[in-house]
Amino acid sequence: MKLNLLPTTVSKGRQARSAWVFFFILVAASVGGSIGVFLNSTNAIKRQKERLEAIRPSAEQAVKISNEADTILSDTKTVALLKNTALAKAMVAHNTAYPDVYDKVSSWIPKFFRVTSMVATPSDDKTVTVTLTGLISSYQRYSDLMLALLRSKDVLNVSRSGFAGVDTIVPNLSEVDQTGRPHKSNVGAIPDDPLDRLSYFQSQSVSPSGYLGVGGFGSGAAGYRGSTPDESQITVVLTVSGPNLMVPVPRTTLTSGGGANTASAGGFGFPGGGPTGGPGGPRGGPSAGKSRGETD
Predict the structure, then answer these.
(1) Residue 296 belongs to what H/E stretch?
(2) In sequence order, which ranges of the chain are alpha helices (DSSP H)?
(3) Burial 157-181 (b: 16+ CB within 10 A, else e)
(4) How far is CA 185 from the centre of its chain?
(5) In sequence order, which residues have a C-beta less than 8 Å from that of residue 280 and are 6 or more positions away?
(6) CA torsion 96→97→102→108, rounded to 10°?
(7) What is the C-alpha separation between 203 and 201, in angstroms, rounded?
(8) How crowded is residue 122: how many other Cβ atoms within 10 Å of its Cβ?
(9) How does pLDDT run across 54-77, given as a tens digit for each residue?
(10) What is the pLDDT averaged over residues 93-110?
(11) Using CA atoms, how far apart are residues 232 and 124, in angstroms rounded to an integer?
(12) Exposed e or buried b per residue across 45-67, where buried means at least 16 C-beta atoms within 10 angstroms of its C-beta
């Protein structure tokens, strides 16, 4: 049996000394850590202040430029300049408006209608009035033309005028013609009397000798081609839903510094086969008097 003959105070004193040593070590570590954190924070604040002082001139310069920009924008001349720039961009974007309309309308025109003039005029910002002048050879085609143009959903309305054809007709009975013989609408009735009928046909067969050059056909040179003896000139007016052809008025903007949204309703066309009216006019020239696919 082993007995512990040492007093109990001996072991407790040794434990107390160890606790005090650990306490002092912990306090020293805490103080050292606090000093380290303080020094690190102080250095970080110092670095941020130095960075702030370094970028302060740039920030002040930016504020100065912003104030100058506000002053410039408040100047009416500068506002006018900006509007003129916007006007120029709008006009450049508008350059294709008229060609697009003419290309679209050209795709609706049947081959039997030979167009000699096409003029587009804006009615408002949503509709365009297109006037077609051309030649057609029969009243049946005059009717078919109406149907061909109305096939497109973009055509809102079609009107036509001017047909004066020379189709073969069956006339009403008359004193000289009790049979109702068919004949051209631009000539008189064919008589029933044999001798009168002979004289009638003899007069129809008389024709001028030599080259007449009717309508400019057969000349061998490029140029406008008019109507042939069997053709009639007509005018067709289309109301088309299409792009906005309203264009800004440059002079108004340049002189007053405003009005960049003022619109002009002037149309462009090529009456007689030649382009007129400025940019955006349709394709004209020698081929304007021919239907698509037609040659001399």
Answers:
(1) none
(2) 8-73, 76-94, 97-106, 139-149, 194-205, 250-256
(3) ebebeebebbbeeeeeeeeebeeee
(4) 46
(5) 94, 95, 97, 98, 99, 268
(6) 120
(7) 5
(8) 23
(9) 888 888 888 888 888 777 666 655
(10) 90
(11) 32
(12) eeeeeeeeeeeeeeeeeeeeeee
Helix crossing, 8-73 with 76-94: angle to 10°? 80
Tokens 């005018």 identify what position? Answer: 235
- Write the CB contacts of 168 (distance below 8 Å, at least 6 apart in sequence): 182, 183, 184, 185
Strand partners, 265: none
Is pTM beyond 0.90? Reply is: no
Greater pLDDT, 263 or 84: 84
Residue 293 to residues 41, 177, 288, Cα–Cα distance (Å): 88, 43, 12
Beta-carbon contacts of residue 132 (< 8 Å; ≥ 6 apart): 105, 109, 113, 115, 117, 118, 235, 236, 237, 238
Cα within 13 Å of Cα(233), Cβ side = 10
d(CA 283, CA 275): 7
d(CA 237, CA 150): 12
Q: In one letter, which amino acid is 174?
A: S
User: By the 8 A CB rule, do 275 and 173 touch?
Assistant: no
Q: What is the C-alpha to C-alpha distance for residues 88 and 82, in angstroms, rounded to an integer? A: 10
- Taken as a whole, the chain contains a residue count of 296
Q: Look at residue 62 and give its three-state secondary structure.
A: helix
| Distance (Å, whole) CA 213 – CA 220 | 11
Rounded average pLDDT over 184-202:
85
